[in-house]
Amino acid sequence: MNTQMDVDEAAYIEKAAEKIVETDLEAFAVFFLTSFKPLANIAGELSIFFGAPFLLLLENKGFEFIETFQKTNNIERLVLKIEKLSKQKEIKQKEEKQKSSNNGNGFIDRIKKYFIR
């Protein structure tokens, strides 16, 4: 049972990190999560208390999600995953930028093409 929960936790962490990086909120999320980490347990309990009627609509997924991020080690795993995905995104963007500049799409290359014809 513990391994199933670990798999679910890993999936929640992966999805949350992907969504955060996809929306370009990496810096804000890392700042918020690191400052929120000491209060994670209290905030999780409060969200279960106040959100219970709404969480029932999500079946067990809502409670599992809150329980996942109630643990400080999972918040740390999320921060590390966000940083990793952010670096991968940066590298990919640099490669695409370099590839587009190598294809002759730069200003100087366009001028050369215009005059050399």
Question: What is the element layout, followed by pairings?
Answer:
Blueprint: H1 2-22, H2 26-36, H3 40-55, H4 60-69, H5 72-102, H6 107-116
Helix pairs in contact: 1-4, 1-5, 2-5, 3-4
How would you describe this structure to a colleague?
By secondary structure, the protein is an all-alpha fold. It has one domain (about 1-90). It has helices at about 1-20, 25-35, 40-55, 60-70, 70-100, 105-115. The longest helix is centred in the C-terminal third of the chain and has 31 residues, at about 70-100. The relative contact order is 0.11.
Keywords:
117 residues, 85% helix, single chain
Task: Briefly say what this structure is.
With 117 residues, the protein is mostly helical. It is 85% helix and 0% strand.
What would the average pLDDT be, to the nearest integer?
84
From the alpha-carbon coordinates, what is the Rg to the nearest angstrom?
21 Å
Residue share in helix: over 70%
In N-to-C order, the SSE pattern is HHHHHH
Low-confidence stretches are none
Distance between the termini: 69 Å
Total number of domains? 1
The geometry reads as elongated
For the biggest sheet, the summary is:
none
Strand content: under 5%
Based on secondary structure, the structural category is mainly alpha
Number of strands: 0
Q: What is the tally of helical segments?
A: 6
